[in-house]
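Key result, reporting period 2: structure in, sequence out.
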């Protein structure tokens, strides 16, 4: 026997597992000419890849394969049941995945959660390890972050304040309390203890955990075969409310979200543009950024398309849309004055006009959806006809 290859903790559907790849490397170099496993499932649990190795790869490289308990041997010829066994082996993985998901869903619906480390401001509940309890030693940090956000500070400014005031990070607190993350903090400089970053602060400000909710299913795997993580749309998240004691009230949380959504970043001069975040490119939908062009006696402000400015010259995306600030300001002011005048002159007529306008938009949207549905149904009929014709042939 040349070697033994063990992949404990790896899924049989994954043929990129380390020991398997090491075995294939030894096969490529001619060190191995026979592979023996207890049964087919020990080799792999993905029927397409199993068939590929048994029917193509091993015969091509003249490798003998033996599955002991099932009596399969490529030298004597594999039985006709091998493809079916491979399918059943894969089905076991799929079924196990389905049962695990169902068990987790039931746990989440009961208000429990699975976690290795409790979020900052919380600790494991002393009576139920799958629930959270407020940590009185760290909850004040969360309260401070939200208080700063409600009073207009963005994630960048909050990060600077936390660093300046030397407030410890979640990782450092876990290191001091439980000895976790020792490889990051042991013998590290003192500044590491409060090395906050903007991403961490932003995640805290958006986390519904702090209003007593548990949100699950933000990410999932592509499938039980492919373990690559993908982010789900918010509509597919599993949200369970009031699963634990909140640190922040819902009013404060919602106010912080509004501040984040409407916050405008000041320019180098300290001024904040009134149109910041509101001007969009009509063609590509990207934001239009503000800039100033300096002349000898004055300066001129203008907006241009961000996509063209960043990518247009390289990839030919969008075009150099441009509008002067004073032109936009004058137009918006004129329209506001017009509508204010209309409201003062005849408020009922204005409301009727606006309602009719919204009805037209709804009718337009309905017609568009109906046209798309008719197009999809036509395509479905055509595909069905092609399938019928294929089977008839």
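The corresponding designed sequence is given below.
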């Amino acid at each position: 026997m040349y070697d033994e290859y063990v992949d404990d903790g790896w899924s049989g559907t994954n043929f990129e597992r380390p020991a398997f790849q090491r075995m294939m490397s030894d096969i490529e170099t001619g060190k191995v000419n026979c592979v023996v496993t207890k049964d087919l499932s020990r080799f792999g649990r993905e029927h397409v890849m199993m068939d590929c190795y048994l029917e193509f790869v091993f015969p091509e490289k003249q490798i003998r394969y033996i599955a002991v308990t099932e009596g399969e041997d490529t030298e004597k010829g594999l039985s006709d049941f091998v493809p079916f066994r491979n399918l059943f082996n894969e089905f076991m993985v799929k079924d196990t995945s389905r049962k695990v998901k169902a068990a987790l869903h039931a746990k989440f619906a009961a208000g429990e959660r699975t976690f290795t480390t409790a979020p900052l401001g919380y600790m494991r509940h002393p009576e139920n390890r799958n629930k959270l309890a407020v940590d009185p030693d760290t909850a004040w940090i969360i309260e401070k972050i939200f208080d700063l956000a409600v009073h207009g500070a963005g994630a960048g400014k909050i990060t600077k304040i936390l660093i300046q005031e030397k407030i410890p990070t979640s990782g450092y607190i876990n290191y001091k309390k439980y000895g976790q993350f020792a490889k990051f903090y042991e013998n590290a400089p003192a500044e590491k203890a409060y090395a906050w970053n903007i991403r961490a602060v932003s995640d805290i400000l958006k986390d519904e955990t702090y209003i007593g909710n548990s949100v699950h299913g933000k990410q999932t795997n592509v499938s039980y075969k492919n373990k690559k993580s993908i982010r789900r749309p918010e509509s597919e998240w599993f949200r369970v409310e009031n699963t634990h004691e909140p640190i922040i009230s819902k009013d404060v949380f919602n106010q912080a979200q509004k501040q984040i959504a409407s916050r405008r970043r000041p320019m180098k001069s300290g001024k904040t543009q009134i149109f910041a975040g509101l001007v969009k490119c009509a063609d590509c939908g990207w934001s239009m950024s503000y800039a100033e062009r300096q002349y000898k006696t004055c300066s001129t402000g203008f907006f241009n398309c961000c996509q063209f400015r960043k990518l247009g010259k390289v990839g030919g995306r969008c075009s150099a849309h441009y509008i002067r600030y004073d032109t936009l300001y004058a137009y918006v002011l004129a329209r506001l004055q017009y509508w204010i005048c209309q409201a003062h002159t005849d408020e009922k007529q204005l409301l009727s006009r606006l309602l009719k306008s919204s009805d037209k938009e709804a009718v337009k949207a309905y017609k568009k959806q109906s046209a798309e549905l008719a197009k999809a149904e036509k395509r479905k009929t055509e595909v069905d006809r092609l399938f019928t014709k294929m089977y008839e042939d």
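The mean pLDDT is 86. The domain at 18-109 is CATH 3.40.50.1390 (Rossmann fold). This case is discussed further under Risks and Mitigation.
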